[in-house]
Amino acid sequence: MTMSKHVLPGAALLAAAALTLAACSSGDAEASPAGGETAADPTSLTLALVPSQDQNGLVDTAAPLTDFLTEELGIEVTGVVSKDYQAAVEAMGADQAQIGFLPSLQLWQAADMYDASVVLQTERNGNISYPAQFMTNNPDKYCEDEPVERDGMLFCNGADAMQGPAGLDSIEKVAGAKVALLGPASPAGYIYPVLALQEAGLDTDADIEQIPVAANDASVLAVYNGDAEVGFSFWDARSIVVKDTPDVGQKVVVFALTEEIPNDGVALSSSLSQDLQDRISTALEDYSNTEEGSQVLTDIYSISKLAPADPASLDVVARAAEKLGLQ
């Protein structure tokens, strides 16, 4: 399905304040000279990360990756955390960031709106897609069977198969509950679970009490701490907080999974030369194939490997967003 290019509300404001900088970035590429010659490579690059976990911790966790890219490319690479998913897209559109680690919807938007190149997608445990999960601290209400344990985490309603869809017959019970959810740009934290609830007959504006959270770990913790009865996140975001809350897998039970969502990945700004884009793509893919690189990427986003992208796979995300009026 081909969708028209569009400008999101407030895009100019987002572009002006798109990133919460961990360090200043500079060195935009020189303008292309007359005659169509290729612009010079920039003297520095900014890598935009979206807040799937604590923002300050994410920049520190990503430091080995940016250090590797700096050495491999011979160009300083600085990691920054965007204030939200959409801000990362707008930062790429404004050339405030040239490399984006983005969720699937934002990969599609960056390509559609700003001609960014979607070059890599992630593999997690050999999978190139993942479900969003419904999780609860009240399994007696939502579980049709006895929760089962897998790798220290509890699941019910067939969600232990780790592949969606599963358990969706139970989600109509979410009516009247406090629900932790991310912003509307998040495929796993909003788009797919909200769409599933609507297809189950719920009015998600009136039938649930929405508890907004900024990141997937915050959604898990909202359920863990009892601030929400149900939460949405990517599978399995409980692993992000298990170090600080070792019993999270017992107190927060996954009871349903949405249909599969294409994995997140890497987009590169159209301002970069094809040669530099190729070098960045190769460096990142090679890094993910090393033991050290795989561990760093796992620590950042639970990524086990980066592989060449299939941009067409992102159309399903665009269609889901269209159904919710997010385009």
TrEMBL record:
One of its GO terms (biological process) is transmembrane transport. The keyword Signal applies. It holds the Pfam family Phosphonate-bd. Gene3D superfamilies: Periplasmic binding protein-like II (3.40.190.10). The keyword Signal applies. InterPro entries: PhnD. Residues 1-31 form the signal peptide. GO terms for cellular component: ATP-binding cassette (ABC) transporter complex. SUPFAM superfamilies: Periplasmic binding protein-like II. Keywords: Signal. It comes from the Bacteria. Belongs to the phosphate/phosphite/phosphonate binding protein family. This is Phosphate/phosphite/phosphonate ABC transporter substrate-binding protein. The gene is phnD.
